[in-house]
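Thread: quick sanity check before group meeting

JM: Hey all, I'm pulling together slides for Thursday and realized we never actually wrote out the predicted structure for the chain we discussed last week. Dropping the sequence here so it's in one place. If anyone has concerns about the input, flag it before I start.
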Amino acid sequence: MRYILLLIVLCLIATPIHAQETMSQRDRLKTFMEKGLETYHIPGASLAVVQDGKVVFQQSYGKQSNGQLVTNDTLFPLGSISKPLTSLGILKLAEKGRLDLDSPMDRYLDLEYGQAQMEERITIRHLLAHTSGISTYAGLKVAEKKLRGEDAITQAVQMLNPVKLSTKPGDIHQYSAANYLILGRIIEKVTGDTYAEYMQQAIFSPLHMKQTVATYEAAKRQGYQPGFQSWFGRPVKSENWVDDSGAPYGYITSNSNDVVQYMKAVLNRNSLLTEPFSSMYVSPEIHRKGDTYYGLGWRMDWKPEEKILFHGGETPDSRSELVVNLSKDYAYILLTNKSNFSEVMHAIYLKEGIRTILETEEMPDLPPPAFQRKWYLVLAIAVTAAWTIWNLFRLRKKKRRMPKRWMAIAVGMMLFGLLLIPLMVSFFKTPWHTIVAYAPDLAFFLQALAGVLLIHGIGILGVQRWKAKKHPLPSQQG
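JM (edit): ok, ran it. Output follows.
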């Protein structure tokens, strides 16, 4: 009897311990997410974790821009997580023999890229792996144009045509939205359907991604709300940035419930494609650096002991992170509704923290945000503006005419003001409209600084002209 009682007590003790361990990981994830969203001023987010084919954690946090709570059904633009979905769509066509990954894309699409003077041709595989030779800048030039409607992708490709290659096809990996824009148009040419129609019937429906869509109108019907752009870390409701032409590379709209279905399918990849396409979909295509590679739509950490697929996704008002650990059979999706170029590391810190909790049961500290760096620009503008006012007031009070060097200073300041934005475009290697979209606070204050410099230069010239009238040279009198 004593041994039976002891066994019962041990069973009673063991069960709560196991439950506590299970809850411990959940509590860590919950606490980590709440702390991260507060630290980085992210209004709303959704996190889902799949392990061994089951959802082990799924929770949503915060609010949408219309004030409603974020739920597991709330729609977010996936950003570049759209690329592995487009890649899957292309491989489905290749699996059915409707296109050849290693054939020139010229077979499917009329796009001028100087091929008449080249031996190499851009192939579908080059586009999938970003080795086409089309530059990052060329892709950014046709992105975020807010083109909508059934011919949106066609319009964007026409804007791209002709495109000048920066390297020979196949030479290097050069990440560019243009590659997946072209793939979207190839899907339309091969199937005769719009990109959105094809993806719905070939990918979303079979995977039971019931609310995932590839047009703005479809997203709006499902209650999609725009997210937030970040101004010095603070969320400001954005205008609607969904771009139908960008669906193949960045504007598929989905939610955590649907991405869960996709993650399960990727972990059990034989349900996605038949061989050899199944292995091809999750294998490296080109080496980048160290243990990192790019595949056919996936970024990869590829080591003998651990193979991880991942991709970040960013639009002007959302940021997402998807991780699939093939070796340890888990995956997770993080969707957030705030974005800014300068805050991209915040989502990465959250992504890496989630991975740490899943693998080590430890909750890491979060690096503090770096919002204060942007105030240096505000300080520069304030100092320049104050100097402008003081300088013009001082020069105006002087009775004698200004030396000629002041004319040179005025012209120099005006030139700097006029060239400031082109210089920033060149420095960041990013079109101005992209800077406005992804860093509106930076764009606003750069424009303000350029304006102050122009006003300063024009003001000096104005004071000089006023002085010339009030104090003419002896040769100009009488």
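AS: nice. The chain has a mean pLDDT of 89. Residues 371-476 form one domain.
JM: adding both to the slides.
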